[in-house]
Design brief:
The structure holds two protein chains of two kinds.
Chain A (H helix, E strand, L loop, with lengths): L15 H10 L3 E3 L2 H7 L13 E4 L3 H14 L3 E4 L16 E4 L15 E5 L4 H8 L4 E2 L12 H6 L7 H4 L6 E7 L5 E4 L12 H5 L8 E8 L1 E2 L4 E8 L2 H12 L4 E9 H10 L12 E8 L3 H13 L5 E4 L3 H12 L1 H8 L2 E7 L5 H15 L4 E7 L4 E7 L6 H21 L24 H14 L14
Parallel strand pairs in A: 2-4, 3-4
Antiparallel strand pairs in A: 1-2, 5-9, 6-10, 7-8, 7-9, 11-13, 11-14, 12-13, 12-16, 15-17, 16-17
Helix pairs in contact in A: 9-12, 13-14
Chain B lengths: L1 E6 L1 E3 L8 E3 L2 E3 L5 E3 L1 H13 L12 E8 L4 H10 L3 E6 L7 H15 L3 E5 L10 H9 L3 E10 L4 E8 L2 E8 L2 E5 L9 E2 L18 H7 L4 E5 H4 L27 H10 L5
Parallel strand pairs in B: 1-6, 1-8, 6-7, 7-14, 8-12, 9-12, 9-13
Antiparallel strand pairs in B: 2-5, 3-4, 9-10, 10-11
Helix pairs in contact in B: 2-5, 3-4
Classes of the chains: A alpha+beta, B alpha/beta.
């Protein structure tokens, strides 16, 4: 591009826009196809209209760095983009940004069986990593419903959670090393493949969960663990929330390893049944249900435990999957909820977490606030109780107009967030902040904390080109 | 009413990627098993016929489940006992020493010993898809048969009205007991089975019931008898000989076309389908 003058072309006639496009095209594949822009410009939130400038598809870390250098020089904003399954708008490009897609960076190296690690590029799909390491008897225990689309880089950038957090923790715990490209184009290797590395401030963890505002994850050394043994799936009918928590206390001390402890209410089950045909687990309905998945249960010990649970009245009924097919049927009851809520009505979603000890008090207050201020609103609650994480879905009353409902949910959210704050909880447990929760960040993080975040952003991305407008305003 | 339900375990089709063929034989070690779904429907049907649906804990008849296979097939029987069957029989045999005809002949001997009013079974097993045992058994017993039942109505202890799934509709037949009935998918719809003891207003949940935790434990104490195959069939020679197994060929990767015209061209000239 630099020798345009030499070719006798009047450089003033080449617009800044064209220069940027050509500079990017010199690095890697670029598309401005309208369909691609619409696809790559948004995540699973369908609130914002996608409007990126272009989408670039680097294949190597060097190409990512080159794209960032070009963008930095011209002050062009960049949205790092993975599988785009996020629920907070973190990967939305609605203001003419360059979408930096990791879709072509899918290399997975050979598994290091001795060290139980694997090095992958950021665009490797979560499920592909699972399949890649399974023959070695290992797994990367980051697991959730969207694993067929979500990518390692996105999981890291959002510190993804999911259904196995109770056993394995968050993505953060399964990343040994990170390669990160900074806005300037400088590439950092953080952590390597070391389990132990106590040498100053851990910069690697700074990038985990940073939602693409501090740097772009290009490669990662993932920590693996042995694949779990045979799992038993149980479903309990539980009379109320205190019993759900009491049952959880007993399960924690039970003769097994819990890999999932999931709650859903009868409101959720009724919506699921309205939407699709499912196998009814019990002959009688119950206010709450708990799905529990456990490993390595000594059969006799598990039975003794179950007998105690029923003896104590913590559950009124329970079933145990007799084979893999039944286990899948039971999981459908939990994993089908989100889709069924959207199919049978208009849910307003919130993803909150609380200290487990406060769940009961919080839920009681939530119910009374909503029944007095928003009578007739149906609240569908499900989630990962074991992690103190509830998905609170407020359903639009059938008779209420959509706009009216959306306006009122804003006000209701403030009530909800005030309660969350009062109980020491978080307004976004695992979905992140992105664009959607940005106005409410201060309900969970103090002004001092947000100030430090801003300072860090300025140090790592002085021109503010990385995912601008996400998480907090400059 | 006393009902005998023959059950078969099959490899879990959702784990099909684990099936291996070794030297022309199916490798069964390491497979995950589940009951043949149509047999699960037969157990559910038998339970619905012999209970009051509004109070299923009080049984109004006897349901006996039987399977053929090695010791570990008892898991399949225990699961049926846990959903409500009263007792179980395992006919000891190796998986590859059985075929539909041998099973039907052995069942005939078992039926003569147990004297059930009804043999209820799945229309076919989803592994071999042979669809033979019910028909052969009825023939060997000289009993009436109603296959592919989508509905059953029990008005008295002498006969059943069976709605058979046939091409283009339902064929209603009345069979005199004792009889052999094989069941199809729709038999587990909420109102498909009309037993004597359940009020006509009662609607069942769609599908097969889950085993309750307490019932699973109680099922361990229910009687499970073992019978030798040779005690039921003097001739254990097989009529079906499998000459070999092979996995279906792997699918070729697809291609991307650049334009609709290219697609049409390929459909016309390469695939020759339009």
């Amino acid at each position: 591009m630099a020798n345009l003058d030499a070719l006798g072309v009047d450089s003033r006639a080449v617009s800044q826009e064209d220069k940027l496009a050509r500079a990017l095209e010199a690095v890697c594949a670029v598309t401005t196809d309208a369909g691609d822009l619409a696809t790559y410009g948004r995540d699973w939130t369908k609130v914002h209209e996608p409007r990126p400038r272009c989408v670039v598809f680097p294949k190597t870390t060097a190409e990512v760095a080159a794209v960032l250098r070009v963008a930095s020089e011209r002050g062009a904003p960049v949205v790092p983009s993975g599988g785009r399954t996020g629920l907070a708008g973190g990967a939305v490009a609605a203001s003419g940004e360059i979408v930096l897609s990791m879709a072509k960076m899918t290399r997975m190296d050979e598994v290091d069986v001795t060290g139980a690690t694997v090095r992958v590029q950021a665009g490797a799909v979560t499920e592909a990593v699972h399949h890649h390491v399974a023959p070695a008897g290992l797994t990367w225990p980051v697991d959730f419903a969207s694993k067929g689309s979500s990518q390692v880089g996105g999981n890291i950038a959002t510190n993804a959670g999911g259904v196995k957090v109770i056993r394995y923790g968050l993505t953060r715990q399964w990343v040994l090393g990170l390669e990160v490209a900074l806005a300037s184009g400088e590439v950092l290797e953080l952590g390597g493949a070391l389990e132990k590395n106590n040498t100053g401030v851990d910069l690697r963890q700074l990038f985990v969960g940073s939602e693409g505002i501090l740097g772009v994850v290009t490669e990662a050394t993932l920590k693996l663990t042995r694949a779990p043994g045979e799992q038993e799936v149980l479903l309990f009918a539980v009379p109320d929330l205190p019993s759900v928590l009491a049952l959880f206390r007993e399960a924690r001390r039970g003769p097994f390893v819990i890999s999932a402890y999931e709650l859903f209410t009868d409101v959720c089950l009724a919506r699921l049944e309205r939407h699709r045909s499912v196998r009814a687990p019990f002959t009688e309905r119950s206010p709450c249900y708990v799905l529990m998945e456990v490993e390595a249960a000594d059969e006799a010990a598990l039975e003794a435990w179950v007998t105690e649970i029923f003896g104590a009245g913590l559950a009124t009924d329970g079933v145990l999957a007799q084979h893999g097919g039944e286990a899948r049927d039971l999981w459908t009851l939990r994993e089908g909820i989100s889709e069924s809520l959207s199919a049978t009505g208009l849910p307003h979603k919130n993803d909150i977490s609380l200290p487990i000890a406060r769940l009961e008090a919080f839920s009681g207050e939530l119910a009374s606030v909503f029944s007095s201020r928003y009578p007739g609103w149906e609240i569908a609650i499900f989630g990962h109780v074991g992690d103190g994480n509830l998905h609170v879905n407020v359903m639009k009353p059938d008779a209420m107009a959509k706009d009216d409902f959306l306006a009122k949910t804003k006000e209701a959210d403030l009530e909800l967030f005030r309660l969350v704050r009062a109980h020491g909880g978080s307004i976004s447990a695992e979905h992140g902040i992105g664009l959607l929760k940005k106005p409410y960040l201060h309900y969970t993080r103090s002004e001092a904390e947000i100030g430090i975040m801003r300072d860090m952003k300025r140090v790592l991305d002085p021109k503010g080109i990385l995912n601008p407008g996400k998480v907090f305003d400059p | 009413m006393k009902i005998l339900v023959p059950l078969k375990r099959v490899a879990d089709p959702d784990n099909a990627n684990k099936v291996k063929v070794n030297g022309g034989k199916l490798e069964t070690t390491g497979l995950e098993w589940k009951p043949n779904p149509f047999d699960e429907y037969a157990v559910e049907t038998a339970l619905r016929l012999t209970e009051n649906g509004t109070n299923p804990k009080a049984r109004q008849g006897e349901v006996v489940v039987v399977t053929f296979g090695p010791k570990d097939t008892e898991t399949t029987l225990r699961a049926a006992l846990a959903t409500g069957a009263d007792r179980a029989i395992r006919v000891d045999a190796a998986d590859d020493a059985l075929d539909g005809d041998l099973v039907a002949r052995a069942l005939k001997a078992l039926v003569e010993k147990e004297k059930p009013d009804l043999v209820l079974l799945g229309k076919q097993a989803v592994d071999g898809d042979s669809n033979q045992v019910g028909q052969l058994l009825a023939e060997y017993l000289g009993w009436p048969q109603a296959t592919f039942a989508g509905s059953i109505q029990s008005e008295d202890d002498k006969s059943l009205v069976v709605g058979r799934e046939v091409d283009g509709g339902t064929l209603k037949v009345r069979v005199t007991l004792p009889a052999v009935v094989s069941v199809d998918l729709r038999i587990v719809a909420p109102n498909s089975v009309r037993g004597k003891h359940t009020p006509p207003t009662h609607a069942y949940a769609d599908g097969v019931r889950f085993a309750a935790l307490m019932a699973i434990m109680a099922a361990k104490k229910k009687p499970l008898a073992e019978v030798k195959l040779a005690d039921l069939a003097s001739d254990t020679a097989l009529k079906i000989k499998y000459t070999g197994f092979e996995l279906p060929p792997a699918r070729k990767a697809g291609i991307k076309v650049k334009a609709v015209s290219e697609l049409v061209d390929k459909l016309k000239n390469e695939a020759k389908v339009v």
